[in-house]
Amino acid sequence: MRRFKYILLIVFMLALPLVLLAQMDDLHGDQAYSMNGLHSGNMIRTTFWNDGQVGLRANSPTDIAGEWPIGSSREYIVKVATYVQAEVKNRYGETIHITSESNGTQAGNPTHASSGDSGPNGEWWTMCPLPGFANMNPPAEESDQPRVAMSHWDWSWPETWPDKFDDPVDPGWPGSWNGYFGKNILNADQESYYVIDDYQNKEFPFYPDSTDSLRRGLGMRVTVRGFQWSQVLVEDILFLLYDVKNVGTHLHDKVNFGMLPGPNIGAVIGGPRDGLDDGGAYDLEEDLGYMYDDDNIGDYGFTPVGSLGIAFLESPGNPYDGIDNDGDGDFNGGPAIDASMFEPVTFNEGDEVIVIDYQTFERTIQTMPAEGIIISYLGKEYSFAAGEELEEIQQNLIDDNLNGIIDENNGSVFGEGVDAIERFLYLGLRYVNYATGEGADNILIDERRDDGIDNDGDWNVLTDDVGLDGVANTGDPGEGDGVPTSGRGTDLTGEPHIDKTDIDESDMIGLTAFNIFEPWTIYPLYDDEILWEATAPGFLNATGQIGNTDVLLGSGYFPMAPEQIERFSVGYIMGYGDELFRNKGYAEKTYNENYNFAKAPIIPTVTGVPGDNRITLIWDDAAEYSDDPIGGQDFEGYKIYRSTDSGWNDMIKITDGYGSVIYRKPLAQFDLDNDIEGFHSVSTEGIQFWMGENTGLTHTFVDTTVKNGQKYYYAVTSYDRGLDSLGIGPAECAKYISILIDGTIDKGRNIAIVRPESPSAGFVEGGIDMIELLPGATT
Hints:
disordered C terminus; 779 residues; mainly beta; globular; nine-stranded antiparallel β-sheet; disordered N terminus; 30% strand
């Protein structure tokens, strides 16, 4: 039955309109389409660029680099550059390593360590953005330049989406948001989207596509999405999603994905840029690398200083090595890897050995023949002689000691002699003993998600049978047919809990390299070979370095056949002390559930009217008709917040059971007059949400406690009633944040900024009403 489903999927894929599929093939990356965007949908605010970078660029002075908490002017990072790399043979037969990277902070500057590769005329030999994924002529009242397409900026969307012409029902999705969750599904408070490739990476004589001699680099195309939610449990997380596709014809057998964060922990905008005492560490079990401030004191003496974590929430799976790479099979049987497996072994004639068929990766028990054994893999031959001492060679992707396990000793050694420190990736993880069969029944060793099959059996015909676009009631292929419809091999989402949308079907390799180094210039972003060596699987360097450090994180190796897609989901996570690890747990839980948690109501649109020692706030009722994906129409009330500080730091803070700030005390609260009041029954981190006192709703509020001449910041938020039966507490939208940023507007929040007794200098941008009023006259 499973094989039958697989064949049906292939037939459907071949039936897609070939003319429409060709549209994406005609597009290539070009630096002329470079632009930035701004994520500000929760407590993290940061600029990002559509070549794969998060953070600053030298020629863009208004960029914001990982500010947290939003409005605080505390910036934690200069850049996070991303790259894809692989081992290949060039046209002369030489083995080389190519890295296709984002552009760092100094695009096109080959003398700067934070620049990607560039050609003789400054042209980018890096990842570049594809055209067609943003509006190149936005309305003047919205933006003076093109911006990355974002879900809450409908003016930034293109007329049609080049990657959605394979939808037979609505080709190109004109006028719709190209959402990860489906067409026009705005699950996240903010979602961004762009596509890049390495078509222009001309540094080496390697040609990845036999059908296009102009394509260079590795033949990789990457779709990139960012997500933010203001929900309290994930308000300190920016989710980044990278789908890497091999669009060339070359079979890559050894690919690595890397990130290069340049932290500046403890820095303040305009300050001395505290960054000379940064440290870092990793946690393999959590797939987390993190950076911290050693003395916990930032610019101008602010304390505490938060930590920045980068977590691999999803990465390619390795269904071939016989190892439970993601560590989820501890309770399902099988032995655990220990250091004795790394010791040399000798097999004499007649001894039993495990031999792998490297076409199918099937293992068989054989006896060692007198003439030895020869195996072939990816055009290379490897010989094993009887009586020869065999020892596993790390990172070569074959089984060198004939135990059926591949590269079980990936690791690294730092220091010399008695001071040497050894670290290995897979110690303690379950594996299959192919000689005894122990562990063979553990379904969480070498699971996979590219076969069109619901491997873990969690697809539900009642809720998940919604078709290829992932949206119910659209009449698209696969909807209502009673079997799982995978998005594998297409640019569409597919149904929930199958392949693309079910990460539990993959034996993820996760974080395989962490390399903290100082000075930050010793691994230039443009140096392909040195980046390859410094991000090799098992390179685990966390030796207590403190200084002006940068970090390399890697996830590899994995093969990529033509048309194969591999996904990386990364959490960019902030927190104080242990809060960082709790936030990582929330990030992982959220991702594992495909972001299906309760969603706050629509953010109210607010205007403000000044008067003599008074301010009147007025807002709309759109929030009252919001649909929660879990709770339906569950709106409950409004809260009013006020501050005289742009970072909202003078508000009364409400801490959770761990002592971390989780809420702030409102100035006023209005709720439905119903049977819901008092504290909610569900606690969040030991704190219960105050639901109100059945005051009844209003859409105006007059603040008579203000004084003329003082600038005030206001937020009107809406909240829902949660779901007691499911243990879900209330969700509240907006997070008490100023939207005035150096004369521009943070479009992620509706907050009125007003001064009493002043003339109107108000304007509206991106659907957010903002009024800043100056002293001395009336409106």
